[in-house]
Amino acid sequence: MQGWVYVATMNNVSSVVKICCSDEDPVAIISEWAEHAGIPGSANLEYAALVDCPRRVEKKVYEDLREFNTKNDWFQVTALQAMAAIKSEKKARVLEEKGSLVGIS
Description:
Blueprint: E1 3-10, E2 17-22, H1 26-36, E3 43-51, H2 54-64, E4 69-71, E5 74-75, H3 79-87, E6 94-98
Antiparallel strand pairs: 1-2, 1-3, 2-5, 3-6, 4-5
């Protein structure tokens, strides 16, 4: 089953990122999430990977970044660190990428 694992930031929240997975397009989810969460500011899609095993990738990323977890799916890491954690899951096949960090290693 394919799905997205993505990294999002909020303009008014520094030094934390949200890492989630979804079957839906992360651009639409982040727009809706920021609009309905009641949080001032806007959300940004930093990185998203369409993978063949999104739940497994999300679980691995959460394990790898456990010490940086602030609450639920929020982590005190940079978006680059979160992207690297997603890409480090070698068993996942990345089918597509989106976001401002695409092309940055």
